[in-house]
Design a protein that fits this description.
heterodimer; A: alpha/beta; 5-stranded parallel sheet; 11 helices; 9 strands; B: alpha/beta; Urease, subunit C, domain 1; TIM Barrel; 2 domains; Dihydroorotase_CS (chain B); pyrimidine biosynthesis (chain B); Metal-dep_hydrolase_composite (chain B); zinc ion binding (chain B); Dihydroorotase (chain B)
Chain lengths: 325, 428
């Protein structure tokens, strides 16, 4: 494992499988009466959130607390580009307080990379989403969810996603989730197809390790998982698509479309969902939709990542440390 | 003023000759000139060029003296071999009145490291809505000949047309920062494969090319001349080439960094590479070099854009755009154009002194190195290779992309009207 987790593209297949396997161990902690491990006792982790986020911040916080880390939450909404509250100054302040890891969410692509590579701090850096660039723990929790559903929690151990066909639908252009998933799923051997109107696909996408289609219907029957991406309503004013209704007709997932998917296929969404536009309530509430599982799995994945980055050289759960005895 | 004999200099890269300066003028050029009463500078095969002229410098004064002042900027210019710089209008206040351009001009006169020719804003406050008092700026002591809203594009076609028409009355030229604003909203780097991977907002080539296409047609329509700042794409080159083939009065510039660096460097997210227009692809770089060699692109201009350390020591999105360039320009041109065989030293003199002086009407600069001409000269040790060390820059800012990079060539002497401003690499 590297010292930081900045991009899903930085993970090798073995790194990624190690994280997924470790997350399986972590998931068992959630089933215990006391959902806590002493693994990161005495370590300080700061959640440095320059951008609004509820589920990701809480997910990281839960993961950190389950590993017994000391947690500092820092919310700096709106200050990312203000000179009085620069990223460097904030980071160095936290460093001076003896922080071991920084979990950073930032509206600017590349901010976690700069934090990790500019010599500003020594702490490990975990990217919790930067601009339209990357959200690696989201990709990991998505892969974890797919492996559990499509292979099985136990059968999946040590396995990647070789040959699984995954379709991502929607606003790829602005989606860090899409970028992270394409990188990671490719590394894990899956076949990825991106489906979106041409206006929501970035220039240069032909070099990405995936297929691209403008037609959702033609991909459904060949998909083991269909992941719907969030469409931000404010994008409509920028003429990315004509109307919400037309988007929904062409790229929304409803019951009819879900019925055309293979029986074992699952529906995913990173949340928050825009019901009625991206996904109908019928689909969102169906057993095939993994949104709630994804949230639960997020905690396990983040526990695994923090454990491994902060020096975990041995399996986290199967060999309890002395403190637990 | 004393006499100076520059002995054994390769004038424009030719055979070694002696050049005698007497007062502010070149007195003689020849072999075996007598050194009587003259201070002798042993050139030892260094290349002698007419003093360089930069049509595109940001001196930041008034308003951002923490980045640069007229004094520090002209010292940087002299270090880089320049004897004239044209100072862009995006100061605070904006150089859109006779008062501000005269202030800059007078500061240049006082400091004496190189001539400073202010550029006037095309529109009031660079806002693109109302023409600035172009005539008053021309008639001021500064004698403004070049007008530009650089940093912003004059994007309203009617305003651009009127500006082109208006400056005809006094032979001015409008220098356009070609950037279609709607196509570059949220733009942070070149739009392409790298921006898609990095999740940075894309600045598409067509945003530059569409404005250039429009403006050469406008210039043709109204019979005026237009100058295009910092070309950065292969497509822009094609449009300028086409316009010139049609006889349209267009000139164009390229920066040293667009001749050398590509958008691949942005993968480091290091804001030292953040510049407007953005670094493009290898294909663009090669097209720009070729166009500079064949004359489609007329000149090299630095777009020297100093920023204090804190404006670059941050995340990409928060960083200021621009890089300093006066002190490394000639080295980068040597690396990309001379050492590659695309241009000889006479060609460099043409692109970095003669033509920019002509476009900006800097009389007395960009002249031949011959008897009777003003002694504005630059001596270059072309055999030198060394690491770029920004700590030694005369500029107040250090935002160079070349720190620690080996580049060829070193300006050792600069003379402004016979007065040395740089001797053995040290400012006087």
């Amino acid at each position: 494992m590297q010292r930081h987790l900045i991009s899903a593209a930085d993970l090798t297949r073995d790194d990624a499988v190690l994280i997924l396997d470790t997350a399986e161990e972590m998931a068992r902690v959630a089933d215990r009466p006391i959902k806590k491990l002493p693994t990161l006792r005495g370590r300080t982790i700061v959640n440095l959130f320059f951008e609004d986020s509820t589920r990701t911040r809480i997910s990281f916080e839960a993961a950190e607390k389950r590993l017994s880390a000391d947690v500092i939450n820092f919310t700096a909404k709106g200050s990312s580009v203000s000179k009085g509250e620069s990223l460097k100054d904030t980071a160095q302040t936290l460093e001076a307080m003896g922080v071991d890891a920084v979990v950073i969410r930032h509206g600017a692509s590349g901010a976690p990379y700069r934090l990790a590579n500019s010599g500003w701090i020594d702490a490990a850096v975990v990217n919790a989403g930067d601009g339209t660039h990357q959200h690696p723990t989201q990709a990991l929790l998505d892969a974890f969810t797919m492996r559990r559903r499509l292979i099985g929690p136990d059968a999946g151990l040590g396995q990647d996603l070789e040959g699984k066909r995954i379709t991502l639908v929607g606003d790829v252009l602005h989606s860090r989730v899409a970028r992270s998933n394409v990188d990671l799923l490719h590394t894990l051997g899956a076949e990825v197809t991106l489906v979106a109107p041409p206006t929501l696909l970035p220039v240069g996408i032909e070099t990405w390790p995936c297929e691209v289609s403008y037609d959702l219907d033609s991909t459904l029957s060949k998909s083991d998982a269909v992941m719907m991406l969030r469409v931000q309503r404010e994008r409509m004013n920028a003429a990315f698509f004509p109307t919400e209704r037309e988007y929904s007709r062409r790229y929304g997932l409803d019951g009819d479309r879900m019925a055309r998917m293979p029986e074992h296929a699952i529906v995913m969404h990173p949340g928050p969902m825009v019901r009625g536009m991206e996904i109908t309530a019928e689909v969102a509430d169906s057993d095939r939709c993994t949104v709630v599982e994804q949230v639960a799995n997020g905690v396990s994945i983040r526990m695994a990542v923090l454990y491994l980055l902060l020096g975990g050289n041995e399996p986290a759960v199967t060999h309890p440390r002395t403190e637990e005895k | 003023m004393s006499k100076i004999l520059i002995r054994g200099a390769k004038v424009l890269g030719g055979e070694p000759q002696d050049v005698l300066i007497d007062g502010g003028t070149i007195a003689q050029v020849g072999s075996g000139l007598a050194a009587e009463g003259a201070e002798v500078v042993e050139a030892g095969g260094k290349v002698l060029l007419p003093g360089l002229v930069d049509l595109h410098t940001h001196l930041r004064e008034p308003g951002r003296e923490d980045s640069e002042t007229v004094l520090t900027g002209t010292r940087a210019a002299a270090s880089g071999g320049f004897t004239t710089v044209f100072a862009m209008a995006n100061t605070f206040p904006v150089a859109d009145t006779a008062g501000v351009v005269e202030q800059v001009w007078r500061l240049g006169k006082e400091h004496g490291y190189c001539d400073v020719q202010p550029i006037g804003a095309v529109t009031v406050g660079l806002e693109g809505r109302k023409l600035a008092e172009l005539g008053a700026m021309h008639e001021s002591a500064a004698g403004v000949t070049v007008f530009s809203d650089d940093g912003k594009c004059v994007h309203d076609a009617v305003i651009m047309r009127r500006a082109l028409e208006y400056v005809k009355a006094f032979g001015g030229v409008v220098a356009q920062h070609a950037q279609e604003p709607r196509l570059t909203e949220g733009a942070e780097m070149n739009e392409g494969i790298v921006s898609a991977e990095l999740g940075l907002g894309g600045w598409p080539a067509v945003a530059e090319e569409s404005i250039i296409a429009r403006d050469v047609l406008l210039a043709d329509h109204v019979g005026s001349r237009v100058h295009i700042c910092h070309l950065s794409t292969a497509g822009s080159v094609e449009i300028v080439r086409w316009a010139k083939s049609r006889g349209i009065a267009v000139t164009a510039e390229v920066t040293p960094h667009h001749l050398l660096l590509t958008d691949e460097l942005v993968r480091t997210y290091n804001p030292v590479y953040k510049v407007n227009p953005p670094l493009r692809t290898e294909r663009d770089v090669m097209a720009l070099r070729e166009a500079l060699a064949d004359g489609t692109i007329d000149i090299v201009a630095t777009d020297h854009a100093p920023h204090p350390h804190e404006d670059k020591d941050c995340e990409w999105a928060a960083a200021a755009m621009g890089m300093v360039g006066l002190e490394t320009a000639l080295s980068v041109v040597q690396e990309t154009m001379v050492d590659t065989g695309l241009l000889d030293w006479a060609g460099v003199a043409d692109r970095m002194s003669v033509k920019p002086a002509q476009i900006g009407q800097a009389t007395g600069h960009g002249r031949p190195v011959s008897a009777g001409e003003p002694a504005n000269l630059t001596l270059v040790d072309t055999a030198y290779r060394g690491l770029v060390e920004p700590a030694g820059f005369a500029s107040r800012s250090r935002n160079t992309p070349y720190e620690g990079r080996e580049l060829p060539g070193r300006v050792t002497h600069t003379w402004l009207r016979g007065k040395a401003t740089l001797v053995d690499g040290k400012l006087t």
